[in-house]
Amino acid sequence: MSQAQSLIRRAMWPAVSLLIIGTFAGHAVAGPNGLLAWGGYHRDLAAKQQQLAKLEGERQALKHRSALLDPRKADPDMADELVRKDLGLVRPDEVIVTLED
């Protein structure tokens, strides 16, 4: 075996090791979950927090409205308003006046 082949064999394993380590390091920095993706995660987190706050507000409004419709303590005015709006029921002696928004 010549000296050149011996040198190549000795350098092969460190070269393969460096290639593998370089691949992992590249993914750690520029991969989909790497260091460069953190900025995107922070933007997504801020957007999701805004969406969560909006949905929690809607949930509270729906919870309040459902509490008003509880049969044990229903608000008669609220029930009357919902029946008139959703079902279109009107008494014979009433006139409906619609307001444009």
Automatic annotation (TrEMBL):
The keyword Cell cycle applies. It comes from the Bacteria. One of its GO terms (biological process) is cell division. Keywords: Cell cycle, Cell division. InterPro entries: FtsL/DivIC. Pfam families: DivIC. This is Cell division protein FtsB.
